[in-house]
Amino acid sequence: MLRKLTIIIILLLINFSVFYGTILKNREGAIAEEISQPTPDFSWQDFDGKTHNIKELSGQVVVLHFWATWCSPCRAEFPALLNAAKSLGKPITFLTISTDVDAEKARKFIANTQINPDNVLYGFDPNKDVALGIFQTAAFPETIIIDKNQKMVRKFVGKTNWNKPETLNYLKGL
C-alpha cells in the first residue's frame, strides 16, 4: 500500500511539473520550476496586525517567500535572502511570510538577523491560510517569483542560494 502511494505521489509530481512548468536543476538542493500563471488575489497581515493585499505591489517584481523559525533550512537561508534583497534594492520587493504560530518567535528571529533592507516586507500567516490554503505550499522554505504584471514566473522549493549570480541576474532581468 505504501509503495503504491509513493508511486502515485511521484507520478503526480511529474504530471504537475510537465503540465505547469519545467523543473530546473539547482545544486543547492532547491527545486526551481518555471511557471506561468496569474498570481492569486491574496491578503496577508504584517506583525502589527495591518492587512495588505498583493495588488498593492502591482508593477513591482515580488519575491514571495514562505518560511518558519522551526524550519532549519529556512533559518539557514534567511540571512542570504535578506542580503540579496539589500543588494538588489528597491526595484524588487521581498515579501517574507512567516508561517509560525508564535509571532514573537518570528519577530525575534527577524530582529536577530540584523539585516533590515527597505525593500523587505514581513508577513505573518499563523493559520497558513496563504501558504497552504492559497499557494498549497508543501515544503518550507518556498519562494515564488512574481513579475511586474502579477504573473507567477518561477518557484523555488527548498533552500535556495540567494548569493548565486544566476539567481540575482534572473531577478534583475525581470
Structure summarized in a few sentences:
With 174 residues, this protein is of the alpha+beta class.
What sequence of helices (H) and strands (E) makes up the elements? Answer: HEEEEEHEHEHEEH
- Supply Rg: 16 Å
Helix vs. strand class: alpha+beta
Approximately what portion of the residues adopt beta-strand conformation? Answer: 25-35%
- What's the story with the biggest beta sheet? 9 strands, mixed
- Side by side, the strands of the main sheet go 1-2-9-8-5-6-7-3-4
Counted up, domains total 1
> What is the general shape?
globular
What's the CATH class, please?
Alpha Beta
Number of strands: 9
Describe it for me?
With 174 residues, the protein is α+β, with helices and mostly antiparallel strands. The protein has a single domain, classed as Glutaredoxin. It is 36% helix and 29% strand. The protein has helices at residues 2-20, 72-88, 103-113, 129-134, 165-173, and strands at 21-24, 31-38, 43-46, 51-53, 61-67, 92-98, 120-124, 142-146, 151-157. The protein has a nine-stranded mixed beta sheet. It is globular and about 35 Å long. The N and C termini lie far apart (45 Å). Mean pLDDT is 85; it is low at 10-28.
